[in-house]
Each structure stands twice: as structure tokens, then as C-alpha cells.
Amino acid sequence: MNEYFENKVAVVTGAASGIGLGLTEEMLSRGAKAVFMADVSQENLDRESERLSSKYEGEAVPFLTDVTKEEQVEKLIKSARKYEGHLDFVFNNAGIGMTIPTEMVTLEIWKKVIDINLWGVIYGTYQAIPIMREQKSGHIINTASITGLVPVPYQALYA
Ligand SMILES: NC(=O)c1ccc[n+]([C@@H]2O[C@H](COP(=O)([O-])OP(=O)(O)OC[C@H]3O[C@@H](n4cnc5c(N)ncnc54)[C@H](O)[C@@H]3O)[C@@H](O)[C@H]2O)c1
């Protein structure tokens, strides 16, 4: 338990595995009231939200969301705010890795990676700012990568 996180409501995108799942569990273990777990994997969301809700006092709310769809992100953020009347943390974390020689990247691949890794973050931020300004509080945390600072072979697209 941690006073700072107690009764807080959070959104985590890409919450069904990896870093997002870790963030979700950390928030709940520190006393968060609810964490809205957004992901495209219904199966993983159902399994992990059930596990976490039975382990902690707070609720892990599975919320099937594709972060590339503006209207789905809007619904996610507004639903989280409605839950208790406040939205305290938004973790824009959903993302995919990509290791491929740049000359082999098709426009479809460019679009897919930019839509998830960049536009997903923009949609989440765009929806959260007015709510947090109105509340006069809130945190937006975007997961980045060291690859953005230190170039790695075949990861130009991701970087
Ligand atoms: N793992 C690393 O070494 C590392 C390093 C630096 C940065 N990152 C970044 O951290 C973030 C999380 O990475 P991870 O390693 O936990 O990956 P992961 O693959 O374990 O988790 C990513 C989650 O995002 C979900 N997801 C994918 N597309 C989505 C979409 N359109 N809408 C909603 N959810 C979607 C996946 O289903 C998955 O559950 C990513 O943004 C990644 O780029 C990872």
C-alpha cells in the first residue's frame, strides 16, 4: 500500500502482457481503486484481469481497445473517468517492436507501426488532457525506448 496511489484510477494500454501488465499490477499492489486494462487481446485481458482482481482489493477492468482507433480510445478514457469521477494516471504503453531492414519496409508496415506506436499515444494524450486540466491533477506517462536515442541496426522504423 502507498498513500499516493490509494484510491487512484488508472488506464494502462497494452496492459495484457509485458510492461503494461507489470504497471497494472504495481498500481493495484499500491492500492489503486481501479486499473482499466486496455489491449487488443481479449483472451489475455480476461485471464489477467481475473487473476489481478482476485489478488488485490482494487479492480482490474478489462477493456478491449485498439489504440489505433480514436473512438475506442475516447471510450476507454471516458469510461475510466466515469468509474469514480476522476482519472489519475494514463499510461500510453501499447506498442509493437519491429526489426527489419528499411528497404524491405512496405507502406503497410510503416502505417501499422506509426498507427500503434505514435497515434495510439497521441489519442490517449489528447483524450486525457482536458479531463486532467479540469481536475487540476493527473499524470500521463508514455512508454518510450532507448532505441529512440541509441540507433540499433534494422530498427530505423521503430526508432
Ligand atoms: N520489451 C522491451 O525491451 C522494450 C524496450 C523499450 C520499450 N518498449 C516499449 O514498451 C511497450 C510495451 O512493450 P512490451 O515489451 O511490454 O511488449 P508486449 O508485446 O509484451 O506488450 C504489448 C501489449 O500491447 C498490446 N497491443 C498491441 N497492439 C495494440 C493495439 N493496437 N491496441 C492495444 N493494445 C495493443 C499487445 O497485445 C500486448 O499485450 C511498447 O511500447 C514497446 O515499444 C519495450
Please provide a written account of the structure.
The chain has 159 residues and is an alpha/beta fold. It has one domain (9-148): NAD(P)-binding Rossmann-like Domain (Rossmann fold, 3-Layer(aba) Sandwich). The protein has 4 helices and 5 strands; from the N terminus they run E-H-E-H-E-H-E-H-E. It has helices at residues 18-29, 42-55, 70-84, 107-135, and strands at residues 9-13, 34-39, 59-64, 89-92, 139-142. The protein has a 5-stranded parallel β-sheet with strand order 3-2-1-4-5, with helices on both faces. Strand 1 (9-13), helix 1 (18-29) and strand 2 (34-39) form a beta-alpha-beta unit. Helix 3 (70-84) runs parallel beside helix 4 (107-135). It is globular and about 50 Å long. It starts with 8 loop residues before the first strand and ends in a 17-residue tail after the last strand. The mean pLDDT is 97. The structure holds nicotinamide-adenine-dinucleotide. Residues 13-14, 16-20, 38-41, 65-68, 93-97, 116, 143, 145 line the site of nicotinamide-adenine-dinucleotide (NAD). Nicotinamide-adenine-dinucleotide (NAD) is lined by residues 13-14, 16-20, 38-41, 65-68, 93-97, 116, 143, 145.
Brief rundown of the structure:
The protein is α/β, with parallel strands linked by helices and 159 residues long.
**Which fold name is given in CATH as the topology?**
Rossmann fold
Mean pLDDT: 97
Compounds present? nicotinamide-adenine-dinucleotide
Structural class: alpha/beta
Q: How many domains?
A: 1
Q: Give the number of DSSP strands.
A: 5
CATH architecture: 3-Layer(aba) Sandwich
By DSSP (H or I, 4+ residues per run), the number of helices equals: 4
The portion of residues forming beta strands comes to 15-25%
Order of adjacent strands in the largest pleated sheet = 3-2-1-4-5
Distance between the termini: 36 Å
